[in-house]
Amino acid sequence: MQKYYKIITFGCQMNVHESEKLAGTLERLGYKSTEDDEKADVVVFNTCCVREAAENKALGNIGKFKPIKKQKKDLIIAVCGCMAQQEKKAQEIYTKYPFVNIIFGTHNSYKFEEYLTDVLNKKIKRVYQIVKEEPCLPLEVESYRTSGVNAWVNIMYGCNNFCTYCIVPYVRGREKSRPMEEIVAECKALIAAGYKEITLLGQNVNSYGKTFNNGKDNFAELLEEIDKIDGEYVIKFLTSHPKDLSEKVVKAIANSKHISHMIHLPVQCGSDRLLRLMNRNYTVEKYLNTIDMIKKYIPDVNLSTDIIVGFPTETDEDFEDTLTLLKKVQYNTVFGFIYSKRSGTPAAKMDGQVPMAVKRERVNKLLALQREIEKVKLTRFLGQTIKVLLTERKEGKVFGKTDCGINVIVENVKEFKVDFVNVKINQIKNTKLIGEIV
Ligand code: 5AD
Ligand code: SF4
Fold first, then answer.
1. Which of 106, 239, 302, 337 could, after both became Cys, cross-link 404 (CB 3.0–4.6 A)?
2. What is the C-alpha separation between 397 and 410, in angstroms, rounded?
3. Which ligand has its closest atom nearest to the C-alpha of 173?
């Protein structure tokens, strides 16, 4: 009889791709994917802990499976990922949710197959495996890809930066880069298989290579090597730390055939005092110089950023500085987050925590300003013809995106096919461009 699995993913693109690896294991074991809670024989929660809300959402969702498990005794429930990597949280899951069969963290997720078969073969009743990181790269597990035209490729794991608000370095361990030949070979195979977009993943892609290259980063070289692969495709990457984004990398993007003119450069805030408290290792002036350098080489760059509002001691003036920075840079997209206290991080112990009501008000103000900036920015596309990658047809509408990641709705498409087309932009609606194929 056909067996089914459901994977519920929280958090960032890194986790989305990690879930594709878990799916790869399940598909290899003969399972098929389902969205239906009641139909699944294996349910996996791949969790996030970057903000408290993500943890609470995951815990609430796991709780919902208690009655289902009562009905279906041999249902297997697994919890893994960043939240589970925290020993205290893992213990809490183990004791509060006795119906969860398998708990494991980020460092041993490649062992999912072993844990699952042990439980299936009734060798072990419950698996609890939270381990310390090993000094080597994790074994690569083959993915079952689910993200349409885009394929994710890990280029490195972990983070060495220890921004004072962030829990990632504690749950993902130290930076480890994959060998360049291995990454280039993976990209080649994906392009040959028909993927039109590849997104390179790392917590800080700009320090790619440092861990095996005598302390020298060589992200620019990696981009140049991938760019040499024949075919029609776009390469994107996430995430860049402003302190490490070099002129060499920007030049490599500017001179490339396939690398997207989209750069996500999280600034976090516009106040030097807070940047210091956050341990970000740059000033507003230095960040703006980097932005100027990028705009010099890539005039049509599409910039996006992450902002945290309500970091401990943030004053109205600090927040105004952040708004000023947004006006200066003119991002295409801003991801605004309310600061969330993460236990074990230095910022959690800082005095001057900002009340929730103030944080909410600030994030709303930030996003409202950004909406205005975005609307004005998009008007430059009106009447222009631009290259668009058609990505999907949904509810009668065809969606696509430009090389630099701007969303486009394409009207009057007769035959939909994932492909690059030229689109004339006629309208702008809620930060989406609308046009027709020419
Ligand atoms: N609270 C709120 N946002 C956070 N981020 C990281 N840690 C926290 C936290 N404790 C945000 C940062 C980062 C993004 C992925 O998540 O802006 O760039
Ligand atoms: Fe967290 Fe900073 Fe590392 Fe990004 S660079 S993952 S914000 S510690």
1. 302
2. 7
3. 2
Which residue is closest in CA terms to ligand 2's atom 4? 203
Topology of domain 4-129, per CATH? Rossmann fold (3.40.50)
| Per-residue model confidence as pLDDT tens for the chain (438 residues) | 999 999 999 999 999 999 999 999 999 999 999 999 999 999 999 999 999 999 999 999 999 999 999 999 999 999 999 999 999 999 999 999 999 999 999 999 999 999 999 999 988 999 999 999 998 999 999 999 988 889 999 999 999 999 999 999 999 999 999 999 999 999 999 999 999 999 999 999 999 999 888 888 899 999 999 999 999 999 999 999 999 999 999 999 999 999 999 999 999 999 999 999 999 999 999 999 999 999 999 999 999 999 999 999 999 999 999 999 999 999 999 999 999 999 999 999 999 999 999 999 999 999 999 999 998 999 999 999 999 999 999 888 999 999 888 999 999 898 899 999 999 999 998 888 999 999
Question: What angle, rounded to 10 degrees, do the helices at 87-96 and 52-63 form?
Answer: 20
Residue nearest to atom 2 of ligand 2 (CA): 163
Write out the CATH class of domain 150-379. alpha beta
Which of 83, 306, 360 has the most ligand 1 atoms within 8 A of CB, as the residue to mutate? 306
Pairing of strands 333-338, 302-309: parallel
Q: Would you list the domain boundaries of the chain?
A: 4-129, 150-379, 382-437
Ligand 1 pocket by Cβ (under 6 Å): 50-51, 165-166, 266, 268, 306, 308, 337, 339-340, 342
Fold of 382-437: OB fold (Dihydrolipoamide Acetyltransferase, E2P) (2.40.50)
Q: How far is the CA of 435 from the centre of ligand 1 (A)?
A: 35
Helix (H) or strand (E) holding 274: helix 272-277
